[in-house]
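hey m, so remember when u said the tokens were messed up on ur end? i reran from scratch. heres the input so u can diff it against urs
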Amino acid sequence: MNIKEIAFSSPDRAQSVPVIIEIPAYADPIKYELDKESGVLAVDRFLQTPMQYPCHYGLIPNTLGGDGDPLDVLVYAPYKLIPGCLIRVRLLGGIVMHDESGEDLKFIAVPISKLSPEFEKFQEVHDLDEGLIKKIFHFFEHYKDLEKGKWVKMGEIFSAQKAREVLLSSIT
């Protein structure tokens, strides 16, 4: 897969954002990452905590975040998605996270309405179930607990507008 060829399909790039799923929701505790050179999904590490991602986790191709990697996205969809698939999403906002490497924003999104109109009701992170938001925070606060030299500090939730601004300034 050549991720450089994956384009934003909407004139308003922030309304139809391509995301490559790396880790499906509730999968085994394995951290996959897309290998930048080959485009192949590679095992980054086995999580030492017996935890599962509470949402699908992926990246926005052709973007560059402050950590030097493509932007990270959590996609809420109550359907099984497979690693490596491409899904178009709409950003609801995100969470500021800091870890041993610095700031690491986590965007939160839902599939675009064209895929299923059930997601139209979600416009901001706070429109999601409060229990899901708590699970996301809990997961990221603790998923590195047993890894030596690694840590996470969760920050504030940011709006869909801020997510769109960060996205547009991060497209390469």
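this time it looks ok to me. The chain has a mean pLDDT of 93. if urs says something different then somethings off w ur setup not the seq
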